[in-house]
Amino acid sequence: MIAEIALASFLAPLQHQNFVVIFADDLGYGDLSCYGNTKFRTPNLDRMARNGVRFTDFNVASPACSPSRAAILTGCYPARVSVPQVLNPDSPTGLNLEEMTIAQMLKPLGYATACIGKWHLGVKNLMPTFHGFDSYYGLPYSNDMWPPNGKGWPDLYLHEGTKPVEQVKTMEDQALLTHKYTQKAKEFIAQNKRKPFFLYMTPSMPHVPIAASKKFNGKSGKGLYADTIQELDASVGEILDTLKKNGLEKNTLVMFSSDNGPWLPYGEHAGSSGGLREGKGTAFEGGFRVPGIFYQPGTIPANRVIRELASTMDVLPTIASMSGAKLPEREIDGHNIINLITDKPGARTPWRWFYYYWPGELHAVRSGKWKLHVPHNHRLQTQPAGVAGKSSGEMAGKIGLSLFDLEADPFETKNLVDEYPEVVARMLRMIEVGRSDFGDTLTKAKGSLVRPPGKVDL
To answer: Whose CA is closest to 433, among 330, 353, 368?
Structure first.
């Protein structure tokens, strides 16, 4: 009996604090039923929200792939780390190796680290295994970056580490991506259950071209986009079940979000902004505001809705706080939001102001309930949407100096610039600080805090 107890104790996982960050691609604020979607259900993500906390005002740092990913991994505005725009397969730059990622921050504490899915922060010598990840399995950039869509682009391959191992050549191959990522994630969790781990899982879906495996294709009865989201939701459910099966549910923080809002011109192959204005590639709420769900039974309270502003840039400092890791020596922009995600009484957003950059242009700033847009051109995505996976294109729009009350008007429809001149003046001063710190290609301002990008070995 004593021997059996000793063996059970040896086989049980040690109670380290683990972290799983799931970062979907182009999933909109209104795509989950826990965020108001009534067209189809997302039961596993709903389960996370029901047994955890859900943010209503959770922002990415950029409305597009590469800069948003640089921000969540480093806790920095993309402008600070010189990844302001989307990288192509042949881009000569990426995330600098001197920038500390969450994986690098956790390595001194003995964490096993894995990146599974889409990377999109540089190729060759800038791949995940050079940024603190022990292992990598996935696509080095977006799943639409393949020869049919880009002249001279290389064939699209899944990679193990830096080695291409499986070509993604057909839509049948695309349809298997979510399943393959999920299996790799489950294997990583099971293999590392007796040591602390950090899993950064970045599904390629629902970025176009969307696809669902045979098990989910047609299952929703609501079209291919719904099928794709339901497979993504099922993937999250498998990961949660794997954590529970291995006795890791109560000591693993699981965070779910998206890298930006929906790519609306793709119509029936695009997601929903939940009524927020515009989508991906814009500084409106539809581009920046995304789902933000945090789940850890016993640590994160159940069924709480947090209405304070938070950001993906807060993930790194919050993980540092929970793990005891040392923050990067270089300055970062995110904040520790442990008091928000544990719903401590009186907890308030640590963001005095929040900048909206796209790509290197400073388009807006938020402070409390107020959001001020400076005059800028933008994508206009309200024209008839594309069908059958084809984009309808994007027209050009323009907005003048505009002030919105996001509490009363989250859809940014009523310009209050003439009614609150003192608020406008205060926020224009914030804009000037942003231009001085991070630059602004709109006004050709040079930022004093901008650090250089990484360079790809050609």
So the answer is: 353
Structure tokens at 237: 């459910």
Domains observed in the chain: 16-341 (3.40.720.10), 354-455 (3.30.1120.10)
Residue 255's beta-bridge partner residues?
21, 294
Task: Give the H/E segment covering residue 58.
Answer: strand 53-59
Active-site residue identified among 16, 34, 65, 269: 65
Q: Are 229 and 27 in contact (CB under 8 A)?
A: yes
Give the pLDDT score at 390.
79
Tens digit of pLDDT for each residue in 61-99? 999 999 999 999 999 999 999 999 999 999 999 999 999
Q: Is 221 left (phi over 0), alpha (psi -120 to 50) or beta?
A: left
Rg of the chain over CA atoms, in angstroms?
21
Asked whether 174 and 154 are in contact (CB, 8 A), the reply is no
Looking at the predicted structure, is the pLDDT value of residue 139 above 80? yes
pTM of the model: 0.96
| Residue 381: per-residue pLDDT | 73
One-letter identity of residue 8: A
Q: Give helix 315-323 / helix 65-74 axis angle, nearest 10°.
A: 30
- Per-position b or e across 394-405, b if 16+ CB within 10 A of its CB: beeeebeebbbb
- The residues facing 203 across adjacent strands are none
Judge whether 50 and 230 are in contact, CB under 8 Å. no
Q: How far apart are CA 318 and CA 210, in angstroms?
A: 32
- pLDDT value, residue 380: 83
User: Does the annotation mark 120 as catalytic?
Assistant: yes
**In the predicted model, is pLDDT for residue 1 greater than 50?**
no
The answer to whether the beta carbons of residues 168 and 139 sit under 8 Å apart is yes
Choose among 236, 25, 62, 260: nearest CA to 143: 25
Other Cβ atoms within 10 Å of 47 Cβ, number: 17
pLDDT-derived band at 5 (thresholds 50, 70, 90) equals: very low
Please report the pLDDT score of residue 15 as a whole number.
Answer: 73
Exactly one of 16, 76, 120, 378 is catalytic; name it.
120
- What would the two tokens of residue 339 be? 């008091």
The tokens for 154 are 């290389």
- Three-class SS of residue 458? coil
Whether the predicted pLDDT of 450 surpasses 80: yes
Structure tokens at 385: 């949407």
* Tens digits of residue pLDDT in 427-440: 999 999 999 999 99
Please tell me whether the peptide bond between 209 and the residue prior to it is cis, using omega within 30 degrees of 0: yes
Q: What is the mean pLDDT of residues 323-339?
A: 98
